[in-house]
Amino acid sequence: MNLNIEYLKNYMKRKFEEGYEGYEIVVALLTLVKEKKIEEKDILPIISYVYNDNSIAVYNALNKARELADDKLIEDIIKEMGGINGK
Known about the structure:
The protein has 87 residues and is mainly alpha-helical. It has helices at residues 5-17, 22-34, 43-50, 55-66, 71-81.
């Protein structure tokens, strides 16, 4: 992989604090996956960091991104995080 994950976590958090929507960050991360800059498994730790480990906010951002991105990839990430309330 080409990108440093810690750098990417901080970069995405700054973008979120600057006003980017969570789903926009998820879609950007999905694009990086498709470009083979990061792996799918890197998305959850990055978006969790952006949302200070708030699983409901992460879940909502993933669901919003689902409208704009590949359903299977988003579903895999949601399954990885265990959904909300352990679902």
